[in-house]
Fold this sequence. Notes:
Distance between the termini: 17 Å
Oligomer: single chain
Largest sheet: 8 strands, mixed
CATH class of the domain at 37-165: Mainly Beta
Bound molecules: FE2/S2 (inorganic) cluster, fe (ii) ion
CATH architecture of the domain at 37-165: 3-layer Sandwich
Strand order of the largest sheet: 13-14-15-16-17-18-12-19
Amino acid sequence: MDKRVELTDADLAEPLTYTVEAFLSPEYAIAERELLWAKVWQMAGRVEELPDVGDYMTYNVAEESVIIVRVAPDRLKAYYNVCPHRGRQLVNTPDNSNGVYGKKKNFVCAFHGWTYNLEGKNTHVLDPQDWKGALTEERTCLSELKVDTWGGWIYINMDPESGSLREFLEPAASVLDPFQFEKMRFKWRQWSVYPCNWKTAIEAFMEPYHVAGTHSQLLKYGQFYAYSKPYGLHGVSGFDERDPSMKMSQSGSVTRAGLGDPRISTYELARENYETVNYAASTETLVNAARRLADELPEGTPAADVIKHWMASAKADDAARGVTWPEITPEQMSEAGLAWSFFPNQTVLQGVTFALCYRVRPYGDDPNQCIFESYALERFPEGEEPKTEWVNAEPTAEKWGLVLSQDFANMEWVQKGMKSRGFRGTLPNPHQEQKITNFHRHLARYMGKDSIRLLDEK
Ligand code: FES
Ligand SMILES: [Fe+2]
């Protein structure tokens, strides 16, 4: 392996650069099929999407299609979406669909009627004697791949030699376990085919360095200077509480007090986060509890006490409507930071009772298009979980809220800009964009490339 991809965590704090090949090259996009997508654990859906035995969904990535099915109340299985006879997809799943959902006792191939039970075993072949005994169970069953769950997400892995999901997600999974994402449910979920590479898209959500330039309406609440650091393959960003300008932060933007009277600014920031990030980066309970701060607390209450009171009253409000908060210590809260990127393409911005999440996948083999998704998770009172489906939504402020539309307004122009022969390669921020350089370091390893290097290295 080239020494240039053997960057250490400490190297990520140095000025680095990487090439644009990963974003633009059609050959690279095709190579990702084998070297990346066929090797990694990747998030394919949520457990809540398959509540009953026989419920199935398809997941497409980079020309591959997979069926995930609930075979027992406590067991999922995953199969390649192909009939072993002559290769018809068992469940038609066009690239421009965002998964196909249904319920079945058997999968019957529409071409010649070969049939498979939920366990993937072939239960019917027309005229099997024509094969003169060659059709063994192994030859006619569906091809299985690994499936596992964490935090209520379903992950698949196509590599029979891979380690466990838990190994892959560590050390991030242990830091985030206290949030119990498995107790959250979809609040809404949207997707769009978007004109940029999947990495251009996911990187737009990996760093808060762009807040000042892109979401300048948020600057009235204070600075957004953020740390960004690797956790194995994954990475986190957040606000450094040792930084005096960040004194009021407790767990990232969602619980910051902002500038001025903290009773007022806490409410204003919570409301702004809620309303302009499509009702995802906070909850109604938190916003309502913040609205009462000016009535419930005397003028001059220090910011830290305002936050404490806010959290306690929101927790009590939630308890009264049947939503229990997980026990998370202040140390766990602080280590968890604000926003996580799971290698390669999953992003989670967590709060105590909610999460705003993104996933981006390649669109077939086209390096200039991707399937972009965003969804909100939240804890609901039992029985009051909303029924949601994937909604195909144009990338506009009307459909996604102001903040996401501002991010969309960069992504396709980054994709175009990187094609310029005048571009000398990226200059990621060594402090605030380490999640991105960590991503490129690991991507380069999977792809066998030396595309990332120290800036002063020839
Ligand atoms: S391809 Fe499926 S039965 Fe022939
Ligand atoms: Fe953004």
